[in-house]
Amino acid sequence: MGPTFPPGHRRTDRQGALHARPHGPGSPPRPASAPPAARGRRRLSSTRLIAPERRRGRAAEAGLLAAMDRFVWTSGLLEINETLVIQQRGVRIYDGEEKIKFDAGTLLLSTHRLIWRDQKNHECCMAIPLSQIVFIEEQAAGIGKSAKIVVHLHPAPASKEPGPFQSSKNSYIKLSFKEHGQIEFYRRLSEEMTQRRWENMPVSQSLQTNRGPQPGRIRAVGIVGIERKLEEKRKETDKNISEAFEDLSKLMVKAKEMVELSKSIANKIKEKQGDITEDETIRFKSYLLSMGIANPVTRETYGSGTQYHMQLAKQLVGILQAPLEERGGIMSLTEVYCLVNRARGMELLSPEDLVNACKMLEALKLPLRLRVFDSGVMVIELQSHKEEEMVASALETVSEKGSLTSEEFAKLVGMSVLLAKERLLLAEKMGHLCRDDSVEGLRFYPNLFMTQS
């Protein structure tokens, strides 16, 4: 006879069967175990987990309970014979079930490696060869949990390069996809594991050895690490500057050689030597002019005194006369400076030399002259440029529109705002215009006292 229990008392045995005493006289006894169908369903659900659990067990034995120590530091650059397959942002790495510091990065799959790069610190980049993977499996997303890919790994080789961890208690890692994309990534990774392309195209050994200094980035922490990183950056900057100036020096040497060559050819054309037709001569001269002046006036040729500025003034006429005629006969000295130096190529002018040369234009009776407005603005204009015509044109334009600002006037006549304002101020000085200077800006009107009287 079994043990007696108080009325309403219940107990659970080791198999999970529920026993109860009757609540009262005549009550039917409750079943001692679940129906057979229910027992069958439980066994089926547990049977589904047997194969993956066994596989995990085999991977754990093969991996010697270590996972994150498979990763090695890398530059993140693809090596020879290596091809990028797919990449996905927002991937977090778990060491087994444990969260680690690598929580937000870009995961790259190549034909040879899985590469993880930190999205904030691009210098933090590590990789694991695909040959280290035993098998992979998917883990569906849940409430508050993102989908994951579980990667089971072989033990690390004895010759493994340094990485973020020296040892770990897990035989697998999890890749958590916060921004989705795990389905396509799993498919492509499965294809690479099946094709095993890394066996057909081994990477260059010379490039693999370039990853040696990477551990220093993690070990150098604190102030010492910051100072070391700043020193490395300074050395790299110095190296880049040295290489840039070396290339610039080579370019200047080549440019001087090309200038000498163009002078030689120009002299031969001038002397009419060789079988060169007139059309070829004209075409070649146009090429030289498009590159710059064939024979620029330099201090080496004419010294640094008055003779140099006189020759420079004559050369300015040849450069500026056509552009001045196209632009209404007047240009600011800033525009002139840019135009002249662009034409001279390597033999650049200083602003002081340009001003001194422009001051000699009128004394040499050349078709150009330097003009200084009351505001101090300096311009170069043609000798044929008449002040009265300029003022009359400004008055006519302002009268047609009723009133204009210097910006509106510049847009209408097609010149710079600086020159447009000087022209309006000159017309005001001569009494043809008057101004309204308010918070909205300076606006010019026709002077009705002059026109109506």
From TrEMBL:
Top-level lineage group: Eukaryota
Record localization: Cytoplasm; Endosome
Biological processes annotated in GO: protein transport to vacuole involved in ubiquitin-dependent protein catabolic process via the multivesicular body sorting pathway
Cell cycle among keywords: no
Pfam families cross-referenced by the UniProt entry: EAP30, Vps36_ESCRT-II
Any one GO MF annotation of this record: ubiquitin binding
InterPro entries on file: GLUE_dom (IPR021648), PH-like_dom_sf (IPR011993), Snf8/Vps36 (IPR040608), Vps36 (IPR037855), WH-like_DNA-bd_sf (IPR036388), WH_DNA-bd_sf (IPR036390)
Region (Disordered): 1-44
Keywords, sorted A to Z: Coiled coil, Cytoplasm, Endosome, Protein transport, Transport
GO CC terms: ESCRT II complex; late endosome membrane; lysosome
Biased composition (Pro residues): 25-34
Predominant place of localization: cytoplasm
Residue stretches making up the GLUE N-terminal domain: 68-205
Entry similarity comment: Belongs to the VPS36 family.
Role noted for this protein: Component of the ESCRT-II complex (endosomal sorting complex required for transport II), which is required for multivesicular body (MVB) formation and sorting of endosomal cargo proteins into MVBs. The MVB pathway mediates delivery of transmembrane proteins into the lumen of the lysosome for degradation. The ESCRT-II complex is probably involved in the recruitment of the ESCRT-III complex. Its ability to bind ubiquitin probably plays a role in endosomal sorting of ubiquitinated cargo proteins by ESCRT complexes.
Xref: PANTHER family: VACUOLAR PROTEIN-SORTING-ASSOCIATED PROTEIN 36
Protein name as annotated: Vacuolar protein-sorting-associated protein 36
